[in-house]
Amino acid sequence: MASATKLLLQERVPLARTAWKLADLAVLSLLLALLARRAATLLAAGGAGSAAPACTWCWLAALVCEAWFTVVWLLNVNGKWSPVRIDELPAVDMFVTTADPKLEPPAVTVDTVLSLLALDYPAGKLACYVSDDGCSPLTFFALREAAEFAKLWVPFCMKHRVSVRAPFVYFSSGGPAGRGSAAGDEFQRDWTAMKSEYEKLASRIENADEESLVRRGDGDFAEFVGADRRDHPTIIKVLRGTGREGDGDGVPSLVYISREKSPRHHHHFKAGAMNVLTRVSAVLTNAPVMLNVDCDMFANNPQVALHAMCLLLGFDDEVHSGFAQAPQKFHGALKDDPFGNQMEVIYQKLGFGIAGLQGMFYGGTSCFHRRKVIYGVPPPESATDVQQPTRMRGSPSYKELQKMFGGSKELIESARSIMSGEMFAAAPAADLSSRIDVAKEVSSCSYEAATSWGQEVGWVYGSMTEDILTGQRIHAAGWRSALLNTDPPAFLGGAPTGGPASLTQYKRWATGLLEIIFSRNNPILQCISRRLELRQCLAYLVIDVWPLRAPFELCYALLGPYCLLANRSFLPKVSEPGFIIPVALFLTYNLYNLAEYMECRLSARAWWNNHRMQRIVSSSAWLLAFLTVVLKTLGLSETVFEVTRKEQGQGAAPDDDGADPGRFTFDSSPVFVPPTALTILTAVALAVGAWRAVAGAAPAPAPGSSRAAAGWCSASGRS
What we know:
Shape: globular
Largest sheet: 8 strands, mixed
Radius of gyration: 32 Å
């Protein structure tokens, strides 16, 4: 995937050309009849009652020529018998999720949406759906304004072949010189005019006030009056598009969705939002391919959809591409990764290694899905496997589909079309606005009751890391996944640029991973009862057990201070032969880890920052996640989904006051209590050990003692 010139986009589509085939056969039949007649005449020549041709050699010559004509026609028929339409691409429904307008500013979401609307892909084949779980009139206002700006932005990108189509990033990267197909006067004028329009858009979004928008109480904002983010009916607005052909101006469809919320129903966090997006898009556009991105993950490569089709359509067997996952990369990330959250080495080493097994994990964003795979359809080779859910074997009946997908006839019919394997199904021709009532029906709180949504169908419930859980279910069904690693990177997002935000993100991930471990969705059980391969199961366990390291690492970190305070030792003495083993292990492991960072072209400082943050995360975010899940398992509490703050311009973090983006700033969160206490304890232990050695309050450690080594290990482990 490194070079776009080496990619072949292909899909073989059987075409209905019965009339032409009949015509081909008719001509062939007549040619054969002519040959038979001529041969029969020549064979009968000279026989009793048969007259010889007037010119026998003329007939022989004609026979040879006509035989050649027949062979040529047969070759032509063979070549034209199975044509392929290579210019048709499957439709793609693109999902963008946002949950809080304060932590995820509407301007960030707008930038992502505009980058998706401007992809190098037929506009009539694209539709963008934005899920707003915050039910924010500000987000809706920003998207409505962006829909108008898209009429200018998309043609500008296509005309000048703009490489980065997120306008904030594009206009922040310098002047117009060399930014398009040519830096002539026309481009200079277009660039200046477009930048001015974007600045006006950004100003309108920044200056918008939620109260003043709702206070109007009319038009597009009437449904937001009295709406609470935790208790409100469904709001769906078609901002762009009338069916798959869009509005005829080359801009894809754009739909705003704020699903119904009620305190009486569990909304299942992001997984619930994704399932609503899946159902709403099914009754509106029903694309066989779906892309989902977080609100801050803009399309950095405008040809990413074409690259994805190479993977989804290019294999001889579709089982190899249940979904195509792009590595998570970041725009404007802090130098040397001071908070250890850019995960460059994890993706290049562990991620690419796992891609060689049953396939890359689903990362929750930057992923192209086959809709039928999300619906739980198994690969063709295992469709009748006894390990598959009963309703997924063969072709489900209407009643079975109703139990799976709910009571909406429109949704059931769209699901039937997708599950049949049709990649180029005709899209609804009606105005999307005419289907709003159906879309609201399938996005209600009660729609999923007594259905398979969240279990066998859609994004899986039961964990805050719905991405890992859903990808695991797909792999357990027998599908494989493909790695979408393009140059330039397919998508770029924003990594948290502050200590508290980073630890909040790690805590949420760790909580979700532990929820998987302590549930029936444990990868070990999936390996035994389903089609999850053994090595893929072990790969999932590598990620799932991250937070389980917390109690063990905490215990090991406490051994050093304890031994210094109690005048004891847990390591061999320096004079003992066994001392070389922990020393060699310590040096070898760290040199091995450092070599990985060097191979990934990262600095030694980046290695040190990640090593340091791993110790901090283990004793803080992972530890609290472990305790949270234990309390949940005992029925004493419930987990809470915490949204990570997103920033449009990566740099100064909100908790840094802009002074030093790489500075680790503490706040009042309890997540800092364990590592702070451990650091203080280690410092006290080192001071006590040093005082004993200097003042002689206790027998000084002998040259062969390992207490000094214990103090060194303890200090290095906390740094």
